[in-house]
Amino acid sequence: MKKIITAALAATAMLAATSAQAQTSQRHYAGNIVGIPFTSTNPSGLGLLAAEFGFAGGIGTRYTANAGALGNTQTATPTVATAFALTGSVSKDCSFYAGNNASATAIDFGTIGVRTGNNENVSDAFEMVGPAVAAINSATAGCNFNNSVTLTKLNGNQGLKNSAPGSYDSAQFQANIPYTVQANWTGTPQGTTANGISQSLTVADTSGTNSVNQGAWRSAFAMAITAAPVNKGLVAGSYSDTLTLTLAAQ
């Protein structure tokens, strides 16, 4: 019994030294006064003074038990959630495979045939025999963001122009050949998010440019160029124009 009391007192002293808040604090007294047994549990005030005085005077016994621990450093959180902000970026890009060197984009119609027979009616002489056509196909084209697809003829609605036509009767001859361009690919218009469908862009022979806005797309790309026969004779010489396809991320 004495060992229990001694251990309890030692524990109490240690907890007091660490300024811990007691979670268990028990004080019990028991004894006999003139043959009458008594007990007192957790007395306070005068009762505590009397019990301690009696114990100090050799009356009865005493038991104390104290336990405690330092509190949390801050409010406990049974559930904690932490959000991680993950960021990155993708560069805007447009691609068009146009062959491996400059010769791939040099489109030569060769000799544009005209009616040269001396047995042609004068109203047909020197006129184009048939249309001049070109087909251009790329297996890889597209943009990874909202973009515009634009076709532009350098000479505008004049089309192919003779660089040195000399002098001619403008009522019977002309020194230019208008042409039509039609492009086709698979994509989606801006403002929609859906599976790509067939898209097209046409520049008529009376126009110099045309454009259409697209959402991100990737597909094969085809262009057909058609220079229809004109209703006048063609002045001899070299005819040329520059057709520019522009894919521009916005």
TrEMBL record:
The keyword Signal applies. Keywords: Signal. Residues 1-22 form the signal peptide. The keyword Signal applies. It comes from the Bacteria. This is Spore coat protein U domain-containing protein.
